[in-house]
Write a sequence for this structure.
């Protein structure tokens, strides 16, 4: 009896030691990640101003979102427009630059560093402020346009052009996407190109029949990250076109959520918004994974996915 | 076998090492917090002589100059009262109002906190602020001001300064263009007419006045000056947006915008007040703009020697406002209320402290302190005082956005921007803005 319980205890100790080892991470995860997530789920069913105790309101927050809040629809459409244009543009542009930078030229590392550099600082407040000045009505962009006799508008203070300007800024921050593409390009075996050359394939054909298929897993990875990142776009909209301005033309979802929480003190509603954002991103990711079966090619599958 | 044992040991060592490292990393964060809050106790043990040693948390918002001045004043207080030490937390306006609600929620509001007229009702109604009515301020704060800032007959914040709303204008540029200077006590009709006349003498890309269509407070001043009072009153339970005045005011602005007396909307929306390049006046593009006691000093520093002031256009009931808007209060959950109360009184009475603080929170409420400062005032301080004086003549009370109305303020802004770009009629805008206001007011009942 004692022997068995001792053995059982010993067994238990072995079980727990693993948890003890990962406890620094586990405690952090439970307290700082899982608990707040659970909390926000609860809060999404309450009316909570931070100053007083949360009051249970059931599905009111969700009903308000879909029923009577035009700002919700506005911010959602702005965000979708942003994702729809900025993600493909950024992928295209970074692939283009990656192709250029994958060539073996003297001093290529210096070029790579120089071109990668903007994305290190691109998301910062300082660059946002810089862009605000560049694309202002008296900014450099309009000065340059004036040389050609074009009278520019206030790019970021005109509701017709503001979102487009932010999409451009996002495309300019192509660095990390480009680096991943670059690594992907380096992985493609040279023999494929060589044998294609022997068979007389031209560069365009090589690109569409070797580079793109071999790069499709990397493309897929960048696409998913790009979509998630674009849905969370915040700094540019908050700083360049202050608080999603002019006429809410850049009022993206993250800014909307932030203002509901920390400006209007509607924590409950903001939590509900956060959960809806999670659902939207999750659904899009699942759809992408389903669609990936038809266009992503994994070498290890031996071309099965085709 | 031997090899396996070796790798096992190595693996265990590696894990232990990494654990030790991460534990250190985590421990830093975890240990810092309690040791920070435990330090007053520790200090007390090491210096038991000076009676009861306390550490007061103090928090405020403001620009750098105010931070430096306030820290200097806190040092002076500690020198005079060695048993009191401070834990200051200071930040910019936005950060302050983001952080304070979380401090309230976690019941860790600092003992002493700065408050603004726009928010104080909200925080009083949530029981955050301690009743300070028993602090004797006779002869320090004028009685009428004291009565004015009481909430339900009780004092929850010590008023720190005189604040006021007026209009700043670019004197040398107006004179150079041969334009008659704005006239103290002008009416709204005179203001709009002045703008039309001035535009004729200004080059195409310069404008006499800015476009106030998307700023709710401008319409508030207009409505109040015509005798229709506050838009939001009764702690946010009553909402009164006068339709006739609203349509009249915004129709006039639409007309001025079409006549190019107002800047085009994409220019207006690119302005950023107090930014060296983007400020409407400092950039040289607009000849006038609204200014308060604090902001006119910042403007004077951007364009030294060029700023003059006049009051906000008047109606039958007056024009602009003059009132204390910054307060110092004590947290209702403070453990050192008596020490905190002593400190907030000191803050507006001590002459040494007053010197350190200067005009960083506006014109000091305490006449005696202001008199001491007067000989040393700089240009930016003098213009602040001038603004307070011109505004005081016909001033009305300060009407803030009621509790829960920040959302409405934002809605007013975006809706009126649509009107500025000609995408919405004034009547439609009124209906939408009025509906949201009524809804919010109904919810507060």
């Amino acid at each position: 009896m004692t022997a068995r319980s001792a053995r059982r205890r010993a067994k238990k100790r072995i079980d727990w030691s693993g948890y003890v080892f990962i406890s620094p991470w586990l405690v952090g995860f439970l307290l700082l990640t899982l608990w707040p997530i659970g909390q926000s789920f609860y809060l999404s069913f309450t009316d909570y101003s931070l100053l007083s105790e949360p009051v249970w309101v059931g599905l009111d927050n969700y009903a308000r979102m879909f029923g009577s809040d035009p700002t919700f629809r506005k911010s959602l459409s702005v965000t979708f427009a942003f994702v729809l244009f900025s993600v493909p543009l950024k992928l295209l542009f970074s692939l283009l630059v990656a192709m250029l930078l994958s060539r073996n030229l003297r001093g290529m590392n210096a070029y790579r560093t120089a071109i990668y550099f903007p994305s290190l600082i691109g998301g910062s407040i300082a660059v946002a402020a810089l862009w605000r000045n560049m694309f202002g009505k008296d900014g450099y962009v309009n000065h340059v346009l004036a040389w050609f006799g074009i009278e520019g508008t206030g790019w970021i203070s005109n509701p017709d052009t503001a979102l487009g300007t932010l999409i451009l800024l996002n495309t300019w921050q192509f660095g990390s996407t480009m680096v991943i593409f670059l690594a992907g390009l380096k992985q493609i075996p040279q023999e494929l190109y060589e044998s294609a050359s022997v068979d007389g394939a031209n560069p365009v054909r090589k690109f569409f029949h070797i580079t793109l298929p071999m790069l499709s897993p990397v493309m897929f990875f960048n696409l998913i990250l790009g979509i998630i990142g674009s849905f969370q776009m915040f700094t540019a909209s908050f700083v360049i076109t202050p608080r999603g301005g002019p006429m809410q033309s850049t009022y993206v979802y993250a800014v909307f959520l932030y203002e509901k929480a920390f400006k209007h003190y509607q924590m409950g509603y903001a939590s509900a918004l956060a959960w809806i954002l999670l659902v939207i991103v999750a659904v899009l990711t699942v759809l992408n994974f389903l669609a990936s079966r038809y266009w992503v090619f994994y070498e290890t599958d031996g071309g099965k996915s085709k | 076998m031997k090899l396996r044992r070796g790798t096992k040991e190595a693996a265990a060592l590696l894990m232990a090492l990494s654990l030790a490292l991460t534990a250190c990393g985590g421990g830093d964060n975890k240990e810092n917090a309690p040791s920070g809050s435990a330090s007053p106790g520790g200090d007390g043990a090491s210096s038991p002589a000076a009676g009861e040693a306390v550490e007061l948390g103090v928090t405020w918002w403001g620009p750098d100059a105010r931070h430096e001045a306030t820290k200097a004043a806190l040092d002076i207080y500690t020198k005079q009262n060695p048993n009191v030490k401070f834990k200051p937390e200071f930040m910019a306006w936005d950060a302050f109002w983001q952080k304070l609600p979380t401090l309230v929620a976690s019941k860790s509001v600092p003992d002493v906190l700065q408050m603004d007229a726009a928010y104080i009702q909200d925080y009083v109604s949530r029981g955050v602020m301690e009743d300070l009515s028993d602090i004797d301020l006779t002869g320090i704060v004028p009685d009428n001001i004291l009565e004015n800032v009481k909430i339900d007959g009780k004092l929850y914040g010590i008023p720190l300064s005189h604040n006021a709303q007026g209009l700043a204008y670019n004197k040398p540029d107006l004179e150079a263009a041969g334009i008659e200077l704005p006239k103290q006590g002008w009416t709204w009709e005179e203001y709009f007419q002045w703008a039309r006349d001035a535009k004729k003498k200004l080059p195409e890309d310069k404008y006499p006045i800015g476009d106030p269509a998307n700023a709710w407070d401008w319409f508030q001043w207009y409505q109040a000056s015509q005798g229709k009072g506050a838009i939001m009153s009764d702690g946010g339970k009553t909402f009164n947006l006068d339709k006739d005045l609203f349509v009249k005011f915004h129709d006039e602005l639409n007309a001025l915008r079409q006549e190019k007396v107002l800047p085009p909307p994409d220019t207006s929306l690119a302005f950023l007040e107090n930014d060296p390049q983007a400020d409407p006046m400092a950039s040289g593009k607009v000849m006038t703009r609204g200014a308060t006691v604090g902001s006119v000093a910042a403007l004077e520093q951007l364009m030294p020697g060029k700023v003059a002031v006049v009051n906000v256009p008047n109606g039958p009931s007056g024009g602009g406002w003059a009132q204390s808007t910054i307060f110092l209060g004590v947290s209702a959950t403070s453990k050192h209320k008596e020490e905190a109360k002593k400190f907030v009184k000191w803050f507006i009475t001590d002459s040494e402290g007053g010197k350190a603080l200067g005009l960083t929170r506006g014109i000091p409420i305490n006449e005696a302190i202001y008199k001491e400062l007067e000989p040393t005032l700089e240009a930016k301080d003098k213009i602040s005082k001038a603004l307070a004086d011109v505004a005081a003549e016909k001033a009305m009370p300060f009407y803030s956005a009621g509790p829960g109305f920040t959302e409405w303020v934002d809605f007013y802004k975006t809706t009126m921007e649509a009107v500025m770009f000609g995408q919405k009629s004034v009547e439609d805008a009124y209906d939408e803005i009025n509906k949201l206001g009524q809804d919010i007011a109904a919810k507060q009942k």
Remarks:
- The CA atoms of residues 30 and 54 of chain A lie 22 Å apart.
- The mean pLDDT of chain A is 88.
- The domain at 60-301 of chain A is CATH 1.10.3720.10 (MetI-like fold).
